[in-house]
Amino acid sequence: MPVRDRIAARQLAEKVTFMDFVAIDFEIANPNYASVCAMGWATVRNGAIADQGSWLCRPPAGLDEFGPYNVRVHGITAERVSNQPTFAERVPDLFARLDTGLPIVAHNAAFDIGVLEQSLATCGRTRPPTAHYCTKKWSKRLFDLPKYTLPQVCAHLGVVIGRHHEAGDDAVAAAQVAIRLAETVGVSTIGELDAAARRR
Fold first, then answer.
1. Amino acid 8: pLDDT
2. Residue 12: is its pLDDT beyond 90?
3. Quick check: 51 and 31 in contact, CB under 8 A?
4. How far is the C-alpha of 105 from the C-alpha of 135, rounded, in Å?
5. Nearest 5°: phi and psi at 154?
6. Strand order in the sheet with 132-134
7. Bridging pattern class, strands 104-106 and 132-134
8. β partners of residue 22
9. Which distant-in-sequence residues (6+ apart) come within 8 Å of 127 by Cβ?
10. pLDDT per residue over 24-67, tens digit each?
């Protein structure tokens, strides 16, 4: 292979991203973090979304009151989830998405990890022991923006977001933000992205 072609091939290989992670988003029925009523996910393999989706559920018993503020935010009501499985019944599907060894990413991860842990506690379960990262924290370190909500970060990075506070759309948006952030700083893994953001 001519030298010029070898250089071009190496440059192409260097542009390949090997980002593997799962982005998540939760919605809750009321201020209690354990009152989960929706989950969305987007699994990323080799820097591309390989699987995505969302589901609704009935919050755990005793935590199933839908607060007016929460309903205004996400539009989910008790009526909408009345025929859905309970959160406990959704746990096997949740673990199928998260108990893969992949790191977890979320926008405002403190909220989503809190929801995950507190909801699982109502079932006597704990979350998979995988690392988690926050696209909101990364964005704060890497950019100077008026605010760091998911829609504003998406707008800054040119990421198209679907319906904000629809769990599946928000998970996809968070995944795309992470991918775009990695491209922006020139790294190829979640760990490298986190390290690069911490250096800023």
1. 42
2. no
3. no
4. 7
5. -60, -45
6. 48-56, 36-45, 21-28, 104-106, 132-134
7. parallel
8. 43, 104
9. 98, 113, 116, 117, 120
10. 999 999 999 999 999 999 999 999 999 999 999 999 999 999 99
